[in-house]
Design brief:
The chain has 210 residues and is an alpha+beta fold. It is 63% helix and 11% strand. The relative contact order is 0.14. The N terminus is likely disordered.
């Protein structure tokens, strides 16, 4: 994915991150205020439930017991996101993706710093086959990653298309020699062969007149 220098869209970047952070923290506060740890509330039968989960691991509850490590990693990731946005230039979709990433990372970091774990509450699945429990911040991070992957694929395809067009525009019969061949005069265009033929014809007419 090409990164172009230029002015970053700081307003959009900060606005998206702030919106994700606000939604993440408000939704978690509602869950904590209404449900005890481990308690669940059905939304769509057993397919979708709200569960008060406490995650001391990483994204989607992976790597339990590493909250401190993930807090440090989150700080590094946040710094990288901000630096990348400063270099991302005028790309609207990249800024949107980075804003989603920043908001999700800040939401989960706030939980780790404030209470020592991340509140997860969205539980989806069928019967015993369940997806990882997640929150608004996790969802924003996942959407951002998917968007960045799509942008990278589109950018790679565009570069290959440009290279193909450039190759098709190149002459196929080869450089200066071909140009020299193309510059040679043909029959009837006043070249040396036509001049010699005209002189021979004039001599023949003179001989016949004698």
């Amino acid at each position: 994915m090409e990164v172009r220098a230029g002015s970053a869209r700081w307003g959009l970047f900060v606005g998206v991150a702030a919106l994700v952070l606000a939604l993440d923290q408000v939704s978690k506060a509602l869950v904590v205020g209404r449900l005890a740890p481990g308690e669940s509330l059905g939304v769509v039968d057993d397919l979708l439930r709200i569960v008060h989960g406490q995650n001391n691991g990483g994204l989607f509850g992976l790597f339990h017991g590493q909250a401190t490590v993930f807090a440090v990693v989150s700080l590094v990731v946040i710094a990288v996101i901000v630096v990348y946005e400063a270099r991302a230039g005028r790309s609207l979709l990249v800024t949107l993706a980075l804003g989603l990433l920043l908001g999700g990372a800040l939401g989960n970091l706030a939980d780790r710093v404030r209470i020592g774990y991340v509140v997860d509450f969205v539980d989806a699945g069928i019967g015993g086959l369940r997806f990882f429990t997640f929150n608004v911040g996790d969802a924003a991070i996942s959407c951002a990653i998917l968007l960045l992957i799509v942008l990278a694929i589109r950018s790679g395809g565009g570069e290959r298309h440009d290279r193909t067009e450039e190759a098709n525009d190149r002459p196929t019969d080869g450089g200066p020699a071909a140009a020299a061949r193309g510059a040679r005069p043909g029959p009837g265009d006043g070249g040396p062969g036509d001049i010699a033929a005209a002189e021979a014809s004039a001599r023949s007419e003179t001989e016949r007149g004698r």
